[in-house]
From TrEMBL, chain A:
<feature type="transmembrane region" description="Helical">
    <location>
        <begin position="37"/>
        <end position="57"/>
    </location>
</feature>
<protein>
    <submittedName>
        <fullName>Spore germination protein KB</fullName>
    </submittedName>
</protein>
<feature type="transmembrane region" description="Helical">
    <location>
        <begin position="115"/>
        <end position="134"/>
    </location>
</feature>
<comment type="similarity">
    <text>Belongs to the amino acid-polyamine-organocation (APC) superfamily. Spore germination protein (SGP) (TC 2.A.3.9) family.</text>
</comment>
<feature type="transmembrane region" description="Helical">
    <location>
        <begin position="269"/>
        <end position="294"/>
    </location>
</feature>
<feature type="transmembrane region" description="Helical">
    <location>
        <begin position="306"/>
        <end position="326"/>
    </location>
</feature>
<feature type="transmembrane region" description="Helical">
    <location>
        <begin position="338"/>
        <end position="357"/>
    </location>
</feature>
<keyword id="KW-0813">Transport</keyword>
<feature type="transmembrane region" description="Helical">
    <location>
        <begin position="185"/>
        <end position="207"/>
    </location>
</feature>
UniProtKB/TrEMBL annotation, chain B:
<feature type="domain" description="Spore germination protein N-terminal">
    <location>
        <begin position="28"/>
        <end position="203"/>
    </location>
</feature>
<feature type="domain" description="Spore germination GerAC-like C-terminal">
    <location>
        <begin position="231"/>
        <end position="395"/>
    </location>
</feature>
<dbReference type="InterPro" id="IPR008844">
    <property type="entry name" value="Spore_GerAC-like"/>
</dbReference>
<keyword id="KW-0564">Palmitate</keyword>
<dbReference type="InterPro" id="IPR046953">
    <property type="entry name" value="Spore_GerAC-like_C"/>
</dbReference>
<dbReference type="GO" id="GO:0016020">
    <property type="term" value="C:membrane"/>
</dbReference>
<dbReference type="InterPro" id="IPR038501">
    <property type="entry name" value="Spore_GerAC_C_sf"/>
</dbReference>
<keyword id="KW-0309">Germination</keyword>
<keyword id="KW-0732">Signal</keyword>
Amino acid sequence: MVKEKISLLQFFVLLNLFVYGTNLVVGSGLDAKKDAWIAILIGVAGGILLFLMYYYLYTLYPDLSLVGYSQKLLGKYAGGFIGLLYIIFFIYEAARDLRDVGGVIGATVLNETPMIFISGVMILAIAYIIYLGIEVLARTAEIFWGFVVILGALGSLFFYFSGLIDVKQLLPLLESGWKPVLKAVYTNTIMFPFGEMVAFTFILPYIEKKKQVLKVGMAAVIVSGLLITYSTAINLSVLGVDIMTRSQFPLLSAVQGIEIMNFIEHLDVMAVLVLIIGVFFKISVFYYAAIVAMADLFKVTHKKRLIFPTAIIILNTSLIIAGNFTEHLNEGKFVLRTIFPIFAVGFPVLYCLIAFFKSKVTR
Amino acid sequence: MVIKMIKKYAAVCLLVVGVSVLLTGCWNSKEINELAIVTTMGIDQAEEDGRFEVTIELANPPEVAGGSQSSGRASTATVYSATGDTLISAIRRIVQQTPREPFFPYTQSIVFGEELARSGIQDTFDLLERNQEFRTTPRVLIARGHTAKEVIKILSPLEKIPAKKLVKTSEISGKSLGETITVKVFEFVDQITSESAEPLVGGVSIIGDKEQGTGVSNIEDTEPNALIKSEGLAIFKDGHLKRWVEKEDARGMLWVVNKIESTIINLDCNQEASALSIKITNTHSSINAVIKNGQPTITIDVKEEGEVEEVLCNIDVTDQTTIQNFEKQLEDKTKQEIERAIKIAKEEKSDVFGFGEAINRKDPGLWKQIKKNYDEEFTALEVNIKVDAYITRSGMRTGSYNQE
C-alpha cells in the first residue's frame, strides 16, 4: 500500500512545524496568566505520553494507518465507523485552522478582503501540494522549517536588542498557586497542540527508517514544546500579562514593539509569515490525514481524486463553522475540552488496550 | 489528442487568470499618492459636539522632501481637527476636510490635552490597541497647560515634521537631562491597567507666543516666536493626571524606575553652592520588597557612575580623598532627590514606582491581602534607599585653572 517515503529529518521538521505552527501565533495556556509558559512546559510532558501511545500502536501495525488498524481491531463495521468519525474530525480540524488564519489575517493585515479569498488562496495552495504527494509536502517543510528558524532567531535578537524584554513581567512564579496552571494544562496545553498529533498516525507509515521513529519523534515533540514555551515567555515579558491575554494575536503585538535605532522597525510581516507558514503545514497534515483515512476506509485506488472535493469541503466548512470570530474561539474552547480528548486520547487508548489483550489471548 | 491539447490549454488559461487575479493582492491595496500620512494625533476634550476633539497632523510630502518640487513657502505639515463621541467617529469626520485618506501606521506620538488628562484618559486607548492601523509604539505625551491642538500646531526649526520634533524634543531631553521620559502606548496601557503600578508621562509645553508659532515664518527667524519645550513629568492615578513634577523631583522619580540615561548633578565645593558639575554616565537601580512579620518594606538600590565635567572652584580633583568626598555628596544628593520624589508620590497616593509589583513578586499571597486598601498601605510603606556613587573620570584636564 505504501509507496511514498519520507526521511527522518523530514518527519522531524514536519512534526515541528505542525506543533508550533498556529500555537506560536495564537498562543495557548493563557488561562494560567503569567504562568502560561509553565503550563505549556507541563503540556510537553503530556505530549510525550501521547506520542508514546501513538508510537506503540505504530509498532504493532507499522504499515497501517489508524483507520487500518481500527478495522483490524474492532472489525470492519465498528472500526470503519470510528474511521469515518476520524475523517470528519480531521476535516473539521483543517477547517478550524483555516478559519484561524482567515480570521487573524483578516483582522490584522488584510482588513477589507473577504475571508473567502484569504482562505481560498490558502487552501488552493495546500490542495496543490497534497496533490503532489507527501514527499513534496515533506521537502517543502524542510525548506520552510529553516526559514522559520531563521525568522525566530532574528526575532529573538531584535527583542533583546530593542530592550523590550522585561523578565520581571513573568514574576512572581505561580502567582495564584498550582491550581490555575494545572487547569490550563488540562484545558488548553495538552490537547492543543499535542493532542492534534493524532493526525501523524497517518504519516508514520511513510517513514523510511522505522527503528528511529521513536527517537526522532520524541526529539521533535520536546524541541517544539520548548520553542512554544520560549516564545510564550518572550511574549509575556514584552507585552505584560494584561495585554497578552487581551491580544487576538500576541506575537504580532509583540513584534510591533520592536524599534532599533529608528531603522529596524515595522516588522509585522515577520509574525504574519510565521503564522502563514505554520498554519499551512498544520492544515496540510490534517488534510492529508483525512485523505489517507478516506482512501483506506473506502478502498479508493486513486487517492488524488479525493483531493479537490475535500478542499472545497474544508473551505466551506471553515466559512460556515461560526458566525464570527468570537463564536469561533468559544467553539474552539468547547471542542478542545470535549471532542478532542475522545479522538486524541479516547480511541487510541481503547486500541492500545484491545491490542494488548488480543496479544495476551493469542499467546 | 486534440481534446488533450484543449484540456491542457484550458488548464493553463485558468492558471494564468487565477494567479493574476488572486496573487496580485490588490483587494486591500492603498496607493501612496492617495494616502495622507498621519504623523501625530492629538486628543482633547471637546467643548461641543461630542466627547473628544481629535487633531491629526498630516505630512506634506513635497515640502518635507524639499528640492525642486518644494515651493519653499508652504508648511511641511497640515493640521486638521474634528469632534466626535468616540475617537474613530471624530477621525472619520476629519475626512470631510481632507482630500486624502489618513493613514495611521506611522503615527509617532499621541498627545493629550491637559484638561482631558485631568478628567481621565483611561478610556481612550481602546482604539489605539484594537484598530489594526495603529501600532503600539507611538509615544504618549501630555500637552502641559495647553490643548493638544495648540501644541501640535507649532512649527519649529531643525525638524521639518512637527510631530518628529515633539517626540525628539522629549526624547533628547530625557536622554541628556534625565527629567522626563517618553513612554510608548503599550507601556502606558500596561501600567494603567496594572493594579500595582501607575504610569509616568512626559509633558510638552509651548514657550513664546503660540498664536505666532503656527506659520512658516516661525521657522524663518533666528529666534522663533514660539518653541516646544519638554517640561515636567505627569503623575497619574487611576487614569487621571494628578500633578506635574518638576526638575530634581522628576529626576528623583526616574532614578527609582531606572530610566536615567544621563544627567548633570551640581555639587557644592568649598562652601560654594553648585560649583562643580558631575555628568552621570551610567546608572542602574532596582526595587526589592522585603517582608518582615507580614509587613512589606521596600529597598531601592541605586548605582550611579559619573565624571567630573566642570569645576568652578579651587579644588584638586587629582586628590583621592576629594573625589571620595564628592562621591559621598553625590550619594546624599541623589538620596534626597529620591526621598522627595517618594514623598510626592505618597501625597498623590500614586505608586508610580511599581512598589506594589515588587511586593507581588516577593509574596503574591500578601499582595492579595493588601491590594484592596493599597492606597493606605502605599502611603505608610517604609522605603529604604541605598545609593552607591562612583566618580570614575575627570575629563581632559587633571587640575582646574581655577585651582591655586
